[in-house]
Amino acid sequence: MSMYFVGIDISKYKHDCCIISAADQKVVSKFTFKNDKAGFEELLTVLNSLSNPEDIKIGFESTAHYALNLELFLENAHHSFMEVNPVLIKEYKKSTTLRRTKTDSVDCESIGSLVNDC
């Protein structure tokens, strides 16, 4: 089975998600899901279509309470994840590009790449 790295940019009402294939380092999918049970179920459906939970590495920005429900949902679905300090994400992004774009879509891709490098 192939490994996948998932980066999630956490927001109050929605989360942006980027899935990167370890095999060719290409973005497999980018999508947004709501910060509620229906949105989490949508994420789980996508993750289950990829591979076994052991072959998926998930990382997201440490944002205090906005990610708590997602953390509990992923734990109950037997997916492991890592919370990444936002300062580390910012510095990682600075080291990989000269662009100073700050969008949730770009951030989730940076988080996925960072998870890959960990």
Query: Using only CA atoms, what is the Rg?
Result: 13 Å
> So, CATH architecture?
2-Layer Sandwich
What strand order characterises the main sheet?
3-2-1-4-5
**Roughly what percent helix?**
40-55%
Strand content: 25-35%
CATH class: Alpha Beta
Order of helices and strands: EEEHEHEHH
- Assembly state: single chain
Write down how many β-strands occur, each being a DSSP E stretch of 2 or more residues. Answer: 5
Q: Into how many domains do the coordinates divide?
A: 1
Low-confidence stretches: none
Shape descriptor: globular
Mean pLDDT: 84
CATH homologous superfamily grouping: Ribonuclease H-like superfamily/Ribonuclease H
The number of helical segments is 4
Major sheet attributes: 5 strands, mixed
Distance between the termini: 20 Å
Overall structural class, as computed from helix and strand content, comes to alpha/beta
CATH topology (level 3) name:
Nucleotidyltransferase, domain 5
Question: How would you characterize the overall build of this protein?
Answer:
It is built from four helices and five strands. It has a single domain, classed as Ribonuclease H-like superfamily/Ribonuclease H (Nucleotidyltransferase, domain 5, 2-Layer Sandwich), CATH 3.30.420. The protein is α/β, with parallel strands linked by helices and 118 residues long.
How would you sum up this structure in a few lines?
The chain has 118 residues and is an alpha/beta fold.
Summary keywords:
five-stranded mixed β-sheet; 118 residues; Nucleotidyltransferase, domain 5; 4 helices; alpha/beta; 5 strands
